[in-house]
Amino acid sequence: FKWTGAVLVLFSAGGLGIWSAMQWKGRLRMLETLRQMIYFLKGEITYSRAPLAEALERVGKREPGPLGGLFEAAAEGIYMQEG
To answer: For 4, how many CA atoms within 13 A lie in the half-sphere containing its CB?
Structure first.
């Protein structure tokens, strides 16, 4: 039983490490996407001279997922004059 317990502890620790690494990799991908979206936002404002709300909306529609929704919600908040 001791060997079985030791093997289970080793496998569970390895599994937890792999799961944690996958979580960090996902966060890193999200941060890279956010950085890219900020560059797009800068380009929209600089080159097309779009107002902030319009630029946020355009960039938000480019990227599906939670970050796109965040940018679109920010644009909507600016349109509604909520802050």
So the answer is: 1
